[in-house]
Amino acid sequence: MAKVKTAISIKEDLLEEMDSIARKRRMPRSNLFEKAIEDFLERQKNKQIVNQLNAVYSTPPTAKEKKLLRIITEQSRKIAEGEW
Predict the structure, then answer these.
(1) 35-78 tens-digit pLDDT
(2) Listed residue (35, 40, 4) closest to 18, CA to CA
(3) CA 35, 37, 40, 41: dihedral to nearest 10 degrees?
(4) Which residues cross the membrane (predicted)?
């Protein structure tokens, strides 16, 4: 994928810490920033997924879903007990 140059303003102490980490890892500063942004974006996606799952599971099951769950539970019990 093509790379583009950009200019950002960040706190000096944050930049110094990033530079220190980049030196220890023997990687260019830009690679470290890229990795940090990728990690941040991945965490944001994960939070969004969790929020969506929480929204789905916070809704109580419908009567139809409860009935289906009872049927599945009973069938699972029969299979576990060998009553195919």
Answers:
(1) 999 999 999 999 999 999 999 889 898 999 999 999 999 999 99
(2) 35
(3) -110
(4) none
Q: Which residue, among 1, 36, 39, has the nearest Cα to 19 in the 3D structure?
A: 36
What is the CB-side half-sphere exposure of residue 16 using CA atoms within 13 A? Answer: 3
Average pLDDT for 16-23:
97
Q: Which amino acid type is present at position 19?
A: D
For residue 82, the 8-state DSSP code is T
- Residue 49 tokens, joined: 């997924």
| Residues constituting the chain | 84
Q: Report the C-alpha gap between 4 and 10 in whole angstroms.
A: 18
| pTM of this structure | 0.66
